[in-house]
Amino acid sequence: MVTQLDAIDRKILAELQADASQSLDEIAKKVGASKTPVWNRIRKLRDSGLIKSQTVILDPDKLGLEACFFVLVRTSEHEKDWQDRFLTALLEREEVLEAHRLAGDIDYILKVRVKNAKAYDDFYQALISEVKIFNMTALLSMEEIKSTLRLPV
């Protein structure tokens, strides 16, 4: 269900996406409203589930996680038991930042962040030891051109 938003809601969401650590006073000033109504709107947006959570974004390079791989997974297994084991394996691995089930020739795409190629191989070996996979292709990102969690509001 789509949440109905007015212009002030959209401005609030844009400000929160830009920097959720801003004070309520700063946000209110930027959106042209007073503090209490802005707080009530934010609370309403949280209660509706539109705002799922607040977090911080870390710099992966400064954590030594310099290698980003996009992993294409093809499977010959489509039974529920296999899917459950595969999804459990993905959810347990902190290296997997994103996982998507796809339409088309590739069944899944994963975004995996690790220190280096050896760390990726460790991830790969652990995954295939738990779940039978028909084919995995790893694509190393040479340069991150754009990465954002901001949604257009």
Q: What do these coordinates show?
A:
The chain has five helices and four strands; from the N terminus they run H-H-H-E-H-E-E-H-E. With 153 residues, it is α+β, with helices and mostly antiparallel strands. It folds into two domains: 7-47, Orthogonal Bundle (Arc Repressor Mutant, subunit A), CATH 1.10.10.10; 61-140, Lrp/AsnC effector binding domain/regulation of amino acid metabolism (RAM) domain (Alpha-Beta Plaits). It has a four-stranded antiparallel beta sheet. The protein is elongated and about 55 Å long.
Layout of helices and strands:
Blueprint: H1 7-18, H2 24-31, H3 35-47, E1 67-74, H4 80-92, E2 96-101, E3 108-114, H5 117-130, E4 135-140
Antiparallel strand pairs: 1-3, 1-4, 2-3
Helix pairs in contact: 1-2
